[in-house]
Amino acid sequence: MTNERSSVWRLIRFGPADGPTQMAVDEAVWRAVAEGRVPPTLRLYAWDPPCLSLGRHQSADEVNHQVLAAAGYGLVRRPTGGRAILHIDELTYSVAAPLTEPRVRGDVLTSCQRISQGLLAALDLLGVQGAAVHQQKPPATTGPVCFETPGEFEIVVDGRKLIGSAQARGRGALLQHGAFPLAGDIARICRFLTAPTDPARVRARATTLAEVLGREIPWEEAAQAVAEGFARALDLQLEPGELTPWEVEMAHRLRQEKYAAEEWTFRCPL
């Protein structure tokens, strides 16, 4: 538990939505927090329809667009880095907080590791044993699948990646979001990628909550555990809330002008 005094954060449980909507809402909340319009915010959400997300600097050429479209799945580019994730049967969390907030103060790695304590506490509440924060840096060259390689602040269970996270900073605030696979085949993403990717290799390096526990956990139960885990580990008072009208309007604009636009999704990686 942090030694800083208890802080009040907003908690938003957001209904399932498509990829461009979810990324637009994440950025709208991030901007609202940065401008001091709203308190630090923990948002929990799901994806409908399932969606493949690319890291900010990842090439869209790595996606088999025909197969993805035939499955009825969406495609979106995240504002954060990392590699491709198939968002299906998962709980996604996002944290938006000013860099002056004691719980995220410091460099990227330090803040990510602090946020990871909330995720570890959530896993403990769910009955997961052996969860830990991965301590090794990923190799310089990695494949197209995010869950194939854990970062040094991500959550692993017995060496296999369970929760993947990424962070972006700007305007004096940070946005960190992450994928928590609840069930299903973690290697389903492979058929939607153009690069040769071995499903067996992905399954050996990553896992889901259902595989770890031997039973499936409903989204609501997992969301409650994540909220309680953050509150306990970071000494937070989480107050349930909704998006403000300003955030709703900003999210609408960002969805139309950025996250649903081909100029963003198919941009050339830097």
Topology of helices and strands:
Layout: E1 7-13, H1 19-34, E2 41-45, E3 51-54, H2 65-70, E4 74-77, E5 85-87, E6 90-98, H3 108-125, E7 131-133, E8 155-157, E9 160-170, E10 173-181, H4 199-205, H5 209-213, H6 219-234, E11 236-240, H7 245-259, H8 262-265
Parallel strand pairs: 1-2, 1-11, 3-4
Antiparallel strand pairs: 2-6, 3-5, 6-10, 7-8, 8-9, 9-10
Helix pairs in contact: 1-7, 3-6
Q: What would your notes on this structure say?
A:
The chain has about 270 residues and is of the alpha/beta class. The chain has one domain (about 5-130, about 165-180, about 220-265): Bira Bifunctional Protein, Domain 2 (BirA Bifunctional Protein, domain 2, 2-Layer Sandwich). It is about 30% helix and about 25% strand. The protein has eight helices and eleven strands. It has an eight-stranded mixed β-sheet, with helices on both faces. The longest helix has 18 residues, at about 110-125. The chain is globular and about 50 Å long. The N and C termini lie far apart (about 40 Å).
Strand order of the largest sheet: 7-8-9-10-6-2-1-11
Quaternary structure type: single chain
Under the CATH scheme, which architecture would be assigned?
2-Layer Sandwich
Low-confidence segments, given as residue ranges, are none
N-to-C span: 39 Å
Under CATH, the topology is which? BirA Bifunctional Protein, domain 2
Question: What is the H/E string?
Answer: EHEEHEEEHEEEEHHHEHH
Instruction: State the CATH class.
Output: Alpha Beta
Q: Tally the structural domains.
A: 1
